[in-house]
Design brief:
The protein has about 300 residues and is of the alpha/beta class. About 25% of the residues lie in helices and about 25% in strands. The chain has a single domain, classed as Carbon-nitrogen hydrolase (Nitrilase/N-carbamoyl-D-aminoacid amidohydrolase), CATH 3.60.110. The strands form 2 sheets. Strands 1, 2, 3, 4, 5, 6, 7, 8, 9, 10, 13, 14 and 15 form a 13-stranded mixed beta sheet that branches. The chain is globular and about 50 Å long. It starts with a strand and ends with a helix. Keywords: Hydrolase. Pfam families: CN_hydrolase (PF00795). It comes from Williamsia maris. This is Amidohydrolase.
């Protein structure tokens, strides 16, 4: 059995506050025997304070943007010093080696090694004004299994999770700063339509690919964004094993990767039963252009 956990917590621009919170959650995780802990998107330095036409952008200000961090910089090293032998996935704003380009990024690491990193591919609501987009979905071998990373809006695209599952991902960590709806927000955020979508995507992507899905999220508020929490662990059948709901904390679950895969993939195995010979329109450039035209119509 492997014990894994997803975090719902509030991370801001205050790096010292972030490190203290990471320390607290890491200690709690160790006390519960957690071996893999997934922090939210932008856990180091916080996310954008707003989205859309009035969002934080490089063009309008540098003061409100998350701090830009190098993968080999002191901020990541500080996290490694805190987590020690615990394997974690954590989000941050990555500064490219050119010293200018920013990415919404995540890494999976422990105190001794960075197993890999990921740059967010799909960008919602003007996020491309603050970050450049990534272009691949790598999968990494870690002490807890073969792990894939994705960030927030990526979960709305089945192709993202599917590409990692086909590359052997056993666990997909989905790190988010997912807010409630911007208009017609529900009085009870657990009933908000964006909360519903967040949870539905998590269950669907786990079931689509018959993988373990670990979804972290920011909680509380930051700027104009009101986060919906709902960190969770989902099994390959789409069943939620543990969740924080709206609150801050950790969703902790014990999983048996080999045994669960053997049982759930023994009959209907979605990856095996695919028909890629009839899926050409999904990536065909002409069809993509036609769909873009429909979206503008």
């Amino acid at each position: 059995m492997t014990t894994i956990a997803a975090v719902a917590a509030n991370f801001t621009r205050d790096l010292d506050q972030n490190y203290a919170l990471i320390q607290t959650l890491t200690t709690q995780a160790r006390d519960q025997g957690v071996e893999f802990l997934v922090f939210p998107e932008a856990a180091i330095g916080g996310y954008l304070s707003s989205l859309g036409n009035h969002g934080d952008t490089v063009k309008n200000t540098d003061r409100s943007l998350p701090p830009a961090i190098s993968l080999d910089g002191p901020e990541i090293r500080r996290v490694q010093d805190i987590v020690g032998d615990l394997v974690v996935a954590i989000g941050f704003c990555e500064l490219d080696r050119d010293g200018e380009t920013r990415y919404n990024a995540a890494a999976v690491l422990d105190g001794q090694r960075i197993y890999g990193s990921y740059r967010k591919v799909h960008q919602p609501l003007g996020e491309n004004m603050s970050y450049s987009a990534g272009s691949e979905y790598p999968v990494f071998d870690t002490p807890v299994g073969r792990v894939g990373l994705q960030i927030c809006y990526d979960k709305a695209f089945p192709e993202a999770a599917r590409s990692m599952a086909l590359d052997g991902a056993e666990i997909i960590a989905s790190l988010s700063a997912w807010p409630a709806a911007r208009t017609a927000t529900a009085t009870d955020l657990q009933e908000d339509r964006w909360t519903y979508r967040f949870n539905l995507f998590d269950m669907a992507r786990a079931l689509d690919n018959q993988v373990f899905w670990v979804a972290s999220n920011q909680s509380g508020t930051f700027g104009s964004l009101n986060y919906v929490g709902n960190a969770k662990v989902v099994d390959p059948g789409g069943n939620i094993l543990a969740t924080t709901l709206l609150g801050s904390g950790m969703a902790v679950a014990d999983i048996d990767i080999e045994g669960t895969f053997r049982a759930m993939r023994g009959g209907m195995f979605h990856l095996r039963d695919r028909r890629p010979d009839v899926y050409g329109a999904l990536t065909d450039a002409d069809h993509t252009a036609a769909w873009n035209g429909l979206a503008r119509a």
